[in-house]
Amino acid sequence: GISTALRVAVVFHLLMLALLLWLALVAQLGWLALSGLALVSALLIYEHTLVRPGDLSKLNAAFFTTNGWIGVLLLLFWGADILWF
Fold first, then answer.
1. Burial of 58 (0-12, 13-18, 19+ CB in 10 A)
2. Which of 7, 37, 56, 63 has a 20 to 30 A CA-CA distance from 14?
3. Contact 67, 47 (CB under 8 A)
4. Phi-psi bin for 41: left (phi > 0), alpha (psi -120 to 50), beta?
5. How far apart are CA 7 and CA 29, in angstroms?
6. Nearest to residue 48, comparing CAs of 2, 6, 3, 5?
7. Residue 53: which of 5, 12, 10, 14 has the closest Cα?
8. 43 near 70, Cβ under 8 Å?
9. Residue from 18, 17, 1 nearest 73 by CA
């Protein structure tokens, strides 16, 4: 059902954050990449506050808009960290 799907999404977002943190550490990225990861974490929290099992009216904003910003932030912060350092 819907509430199970939302819980699965939380689990996969946490897994994604853990893997990105692991990648940043293995690649020896600096504070700029980690700052971007912190912003991405905040956006994921925001994304999960938009959608409730009984109210899917903000699903498009949560999924498409927020995930679009997440991609842009990762590109900018991680790319800047790689180029800067």
1. middle
2. 56
3. yes
4. alpha
5. 30
6. 6
7. 5
8. yes
9. 17
Q: Quick: pLDDT tens for 40-49.
A: 999 999 999 9
Q: Give the global pTM.
A: 0.90
Residue-wise pLDDT for 20-79, tens only, equals 999 999 999 999 999 999 999 999 999 999 999 999 999 988 889 999 999 999 999 999
Token pair in block for residue 80: 């800047």
Both tokens assigned to 18: 């853990």
In the block, tokens 């994921």 appear at 44
| Token duo for residue 69 | 């910003």
Half-sphere exposure of 25 toward its Cβ, with a 13 Å CA cutoff?
6
How large is the angle between the packed helices 2-26 and 31-50, nearest 10 degrees? Answer: 180
